[in-house]
Design brief:
The protein is an alpha+beta fold. The protein is built from two helices and three strands; from the N terminus they run αβββα.
Length: 86
């Protein structure tokens, strides 16, 4: 919940607006990296446990505006390291 609020506050601050009374934040998945070892994400996690990692952009709606927020995934080496599907 705090992460959602901080993301929205950042977006509205960039636009020079006060935060609206009502807003929503939606994650839009654009890809999945299947079978990522949990130990690559969490220190001390079991090496044999794997998860699928979602890659998303965020749609922030409020104050009569729609904002698409993308934190970026642009380095070619990351595309080689993380097999993105879908």
């Amino acid at each position: 919940m705090l992460k959602r609020f901080m993301l929205a506050a950042f977006a509205f601050a960039l636009m020079g607006m006060d935060a609206p009374v009502e807003y929503s934040i939606e994650a839009i998945r654009y890809g999945i990296s299947p079978g990522v070892p949990v130990s690559a994400l969490v220190v001390g996690a079991p090496k044999d446990e794997k998860v699928d990692v979602d890659f998303v952009v965020w749609l922030i709606r409020g104050g009569g505006r729609n904002i698409l927020f993308d934190s970026g995934f642009h380095r070619e080496r990351w595309f080689k390291q993380w097999a993105i599907t879908d």
